[in-house]
Amino acid sequence: MIDTNREIDPSGTPLLQVRSVRKAYRSGGGMLEVLRGVDFEVEPAGFVSVIGQSGSGKSTLLHLMGLLDAPDSGEVHLAGTRIDNLPTARRDRLRNTDIGMVFQAYHLLPELSALENVLSPLLVRFSIADWFRHKADARRRAESLLERFGLGGRLHHKPRQLSGGEMQRVAIARALVGQPRLLLADEPTGNLDEASGAGILEALCELNRSDGLSIVLVTHDQSIARRADRIVRLVAGRVENV
Ligand code: ADP
Ligand code: MG
To answer: Which residues are found with C-beta within 5 Å of the ion, ligand 2?
Structure first.
């Protein structure tokens, strides 16, 4: 098995905690206050949907949890360790080892095959010497994830040769190859037809149930949100339980 070399002991609870987070953007002459004191928790093996109207700050919140951006104030904790204020190199490493992210637009690298896209986080993680040590294991893990998501026959396809649903399944496999405990998904079915979207949602539910993967799913679609254990809604910059 690949040595995941975790940054943070994953046994702490809650797995993810957002405390009093505020975030504003400069807008015209003034400031647009998007998050105005958000408190939010995800338990180990929890599955939470975040809903809210377009522009309510769902992506902003997900980006803060995934360390793609930093809050103006407040804190983000992963398994009991504060992570929002870590130095850049540690934040990058944490995103590589502990947090998987999936986006509406897939963000696959067009020149790489499905298999190479899935392997790319591990190429970033390891030094060249380590990569050669881990390569066979890494490849087996990437292939088995792709097979699990029904893409065993698409390993060497480029993204442009795949359907939207297939591209999103590659993106999910890429998010999982480093064995994160937390998956953050931002409107993962937003670009897909109903049947492909249902397949993606089924895959997420199965990962949560069978693997105990913790998931935060952002969606504006109530019927999708209901598949989670718990739904929270962003309204006027704060979180309400639904
Ligand atoms: P949602 O995902 O719920 O649709 P977002 O979190 O993307 O909402 O955006 C919330 C609000 O913040 C929107 O009004 C959006 O235009 C604004 N916004 C998001 N990102 C930026 C940014 N980088 N600079 C300025 N405004 C932004
Ligand atoms: Mg959004």
So the answer is: 58-59
Q: How confident is the model over 60-70, as a mean pLDDT?
A: 96
- Residue 187, Ramachandran bin (φ over 0: left; ψ between -120 and 50: alpha; else beta): left
Cα separation of 42 and 216, whole Å?
Answer: 8
pLDDT tens track for 160-209: 999 999 999 999 999 999 999 999 999 999 999 999 999 999 999 999 99
Question: pLDDT by residue (tens digit) across 199-239?
Answer: 999 999 999 999 999 999 999 899 999 999 999 999 999 99
**Tokens 């339980």 — which residue?**
241
Distance from Cα 164 to the centre of ligand 1, integer Å? 25
The residue nearest atom 13 of ligand 1, judged by CA position, is 55
Distance in Å, CA 34 to ligand 2 centroid: 12
DSSP states of the chain? ------SS-TTSSSSEEEEEEEEEEEETTEEEEEEEEEEEEE-TT-EEEEE--TTSSHHHHHHHHTTSS--SEEEEEETTEE-TTS-HHHHHHHHHHTEEEEETT----TTS-HHHHHHHHHHHHS-HHHHHHHHHHHHHHHHHHHHHTT-GGGTT--GGGS-HHHHHHHHHHHHHTT--SEEEEESTTTTS-HHHHHHHHHHHHHHHHHH--EEEEE-S-HHHHTTSSEEEEEETTEEEE-
Q: Do 182 and 78 touch, CB atoms closer than 8 A?
A: yes
Ligand 1: atom nearest CA of 186 is 2
